[in-house]
Amino acid sequence: MLLASRSLRLQLFRFVIILVLVLSYVENGNAGLTSTFIRTQWPAADIPLDNEVFAIPKGYNAPQQVHITQGDYDGKAVIISWVTPDEPGSNTVKYGTSENSYDFSAEGTVTNYTFYKYKSGYIHHCLVDGLEYDSKYYYKIGEGDSSRVFWFQTPPEIDPDASYTFGIIGDLGQTYNSLSTLEHYMKSGGQSVLFAGDLSYADRYQYDNVGIRWDSWGRFVEQSAAYQPWIWSAGNHEIEYMPEMEEVLPFKSFLHRFATPHTASKSTNPLWYAIRRASAHIIVLSSYSPFVKYTPQWMWLREELKRVNREKTPWLIVVMHVPIYNSNAAHYMEGESMRAVFESWFVRSKVDFIFAGHVHAYERSYRISNIHYNMTTGDRYPVPDKSAPVYLTVGDGGNQEGLVGRFFDPQPDYSAFREASYGHSTLEIRNRTHAFYQWNRNDDGKPETTDSVIFHNQYWASNLHRRRHLKARELASY
């Protein structure tokens, strides 16, 4: 009887091991897919300035280009930003939890800037803090008949099982394809946007038109960004280094127009920072700022990763502009230097997802790493790694540079799915262990889910595996 019982437990242990391997095989897959889908697309040209999507609000000095972002580390504050075109006007935000009833107010700041001969409107930023979790707030900005009212929903309290849906958009621009992406996203149920860089593409213009196209883009995204936080990261089109116009200060327009809560995460620069929202810890990195050893960004990330508490925020997400893994000829290997510096940290920290833009196509990787890269020993290829992130390239928002379908053939082993179409992604976090991810192609005016995956959380999956392994060893020892 003792031998039979021991044999049964040994068989059970083997079954558990096989089951774990099968589940891992199902999630990671063993062969990538390159979609052959081709659709008729609108020309990659910007929407004319007289189009209604760029309409200037009625009324003298009415607030425009309204957008919000998270204002603190944990989601109990927002930064509300807007522009008044004629004069500074009021810096006050009135807000409350009932429509047309504003019991609270906050005072912001105002600034402006010049770019070549263009002079911006008056840019307001106002921190509204001390908010309650999971609550709807109405806010009012502007004066008299020109005032405008919007609303937003605060996230649930920080909790490992808090469910939440993020939208992910990159390289948006302001074409008709951009509009299609934005309209599709607004029907998705996303509660806030992780934006992977390259906003307006205003730098493709010259002289005063650079600033004018920043203004039009601000009015364009207001239909979403005024009602839910967009978490900003900067791309190469935000650098705007234009010595021919005597403009040599990088990120000048971006830094004036888009506030980030960088000081809340002890960052010294608005271009890299971190927030916690619901059950996610989100780290934003700057691909175009120094990041090698001992630079401010390197030192900040080292400390921020120590602050991550997976017991409270089990989902660890990184947003940057340049992809680390990319099988498209466009921008191929541009992320290699950042990979060499940070990949080992990402693997050691069990980052769940890394979202990037830059490449104007969509691609999802398997969990792979190249942390053992060594030219001398011949270890120079990515290998499957259960502790590694999934890399997702979402530079398919719709900008005027168009799509790039120059994927390498054959498809590399690390690439799971890729397609050169416009679209957006959503990440629906269900609880501490599971999240549902999907990429939505803009297809004939209807939302079209093209790539969907259920992901297991890196931290809790490894802990569960460890507990099961210990339990199996305990049973096998009887």
UniProtKB/TrEMBL annotation:
SUPFAM superfamilies in the cross-refs: Metallo-dependent phosphatases (SSF56300), Purple acid phosphatase, N-terminal domain (SSF49363)
Catalyzed reactions per annotation: a phosphate monoester + H2O = an alcohol + phosphate
InterPro entries, sorted: Calcineurin-like_PHP (IPR004843), FN3_dom (IPR003961), Metallo-depent_PP-like (IPR029052), MPP_PAP (IPR041792), PAPs-like (IPR039331), PAPs_C (IPR025733), PAPs_N (IPR015914), Purple_acid_Pase-like_N (IPR008963)
UniProt keyword terms in alphabetical order: Glycoprotein, Hydrolase, Iron, Metal-binding, Signal, Zinc
Pfam families reported for this sequence: Metallophos, Metallophos_C, Pur_ac_phosph_N
The keyword Iron is annotated on this UniProt entry: yes
Entry EC number(s): 3.1.3.2
GO molecular function: acid phosphatase activity; metal ion binding
Family named by the database record: Belongs to the metallophosphoesterase superfamily. Purple acid phosphatase family.
Protein name: Purple acid phosphatase
UniProt gene name: LOC105134049
